[in-house]
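Technical note accompanying the year-one report. For the benefit of new consortium partners, we illustrate the data format agreed upon in the data management plan: each record pairs a sequence with a structure-token string. No post-processing was applied to the example shown here.
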Amino acid sequence: MRLSAAVTRYLAHKRALGHRFRTEEAVLRAFCKAVGDEPIALIEPGAVRAFLNGNGPVTEYWIKKYRVLSGLYRYALARGLAERVPLPSAIPKPTVPAFVPYIYSHEELKRLLDAVPAACAGRVPIEGNVFKTLLLVLYGAGLRIGEALALRLGDVDPGEACLRVCETKFFKSRLVPLGTDLTGVLSEYLAKRNESHPSAEQASLFCFRDGSPLSQSAARSAFRRLRAHAGVLREGCPRRQPRLHDLRHAAAVHRLIAWYRSGADVQALLPKLATYLGHVDLASTQRYLTLTPELLQQASQRFERYAMEHNDD
């Protein structure tokens, strides 16, 4: 069987089991393009290594590609489509450090919002009020960028102060309660948006100037301009700069810091944060909680109070 046909069957199999497999499909299609549409049983180890290695150092993406191809070949072996696995027997350690999410400070968030008019000026196809509201929703509701851009007008209920997030990363839907400030922002945005764009319930909440749904690529491109205008940068190459998705990471960390400061039972509240973020387990939420100096300070102060109380006993 040709590689492309094997990939198509494998993708159909995984999706029948309930997996989205979007990133994995991109990897597999790139693999097909790189090695050619040869019979899957005849693909040589050298061609596989060339695809895995690419043109740069070993990164986490190398490991991602390896795991995707491993899944494909396990499927092929089990169905007699291949008799061997042409993957390297050992996984090298990445030579580039794993990406560490950037946790924006409140001052940096203000700078980003203040710079929106400059970043959306001229021929930029995104209106300033659209992009600013998107940023506030990403941070204020802790949404993924895909979830925010999939929102329809019917998913927003300012009266009940909540968003309905449908068919998320894990095929789940959830209601996301909103704070008073964000509810007000969305109410004002809707009033202005509906003056010039379609207002049917199925219309996209966030759209381009021409009314078409806003895309992830355009949002990320606008954010790169915004980041430069606001001077929110960190050392390293362009691929390691703060991302739009890091607004979600910042929202989680800032919520944890606020709980520590208020004296709340953080361990009891973490499962609620996981539910709010749409995670399937607590481990996924813990990966969002990057240890920042401010978070470390709050945790240390909590531990010091705990230790002093027990010493007094």
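Partners are asked to follow this layout when depositing records. The first helix runs from residue 3 to 16.
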